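Friendly challenge for the regulars: who can give me the structure tokens for this chain first? No prize, just bragging rights.
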Amino acid sequence: MRRLTTTTFMLWGISMMVPGSAIGLEASPQATAFLVQGALQPSGSSMPMYKPRRDSIPKGRTEGPARGSGGDAPVVQVLAPDHVGFTRKKDPALYWYLSSVTAKPIEFTLMDTRGIKPVIETRIPAPAQPGVQVVRLKDFGQTLEPGVQYKWYVSVILDPESPSGSIIAGGTIELVPPLDGMLFFQPPGGPDDKVGHLAYVGLWYDAIQEVSEQIEAAPNNKSLREQRACLVSQVRLPDVAQYDLSRIGGKLPSQCEPPPLKPDPLSTTR
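First reply, four minutes later:
Bragging rights claimed.
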């Protein structure tokens, strides 16, 4: 008897969702593409390869000053792609990077793009150590609505009298609707494969949260820090990658280099 593979079950699951099937559920083209993309996850690579979803929209990240705006101003970056990033979690953890400790106030803001009033706008404790930090929406009792884009920002307030001089970094996040986010199988490689699987099916925030939580449990694990460095390098966050690599004396694997930048279609340069 022919052995049924995980991919076979995936494709069977997709076929059961198309119009006219026995169950009668209708899958959107985006959902089908998402599921097929997951079914074709490559094996044998130790580094997670991030594949943006087809409906990712560019210009989803706000960049702070590359090296701060003063002699002792820190670098602030969000661990987010330069386009809309996706999650399956209603109350995800959002990760950001601070190059050095600061006594300046730090604010976290979450904006629903359908309105102008912040969903969350609050001061957060200044980190005791530089490096990768986290804001958990669960701590605020806040959940995301499916299919809605949210902007989130971390701001270091250098001068309360002049907010325009603050260091601000931000990203964009969207909760995947239930059908689009449905995954029918666990990675065949077990828990160690989960980060790569989440990255490959375009769930950026889930991949970063997964590897970061593993790092929190095992901060000296070389493989885990290389995985996070690989992910952030692919979305052009070299300072964050270097932070992780410096902790383990590692070097960025060649397959983790970011892809070439595509020309901006709105550019007027000729």
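Residues 1-44 have pLDDT under 50 and may be disordered. Strands lie at 76-78, 85-87, 93-98, 106-112, 118-124, 131-136, 149-156, 167-175. Your move, everyone else.
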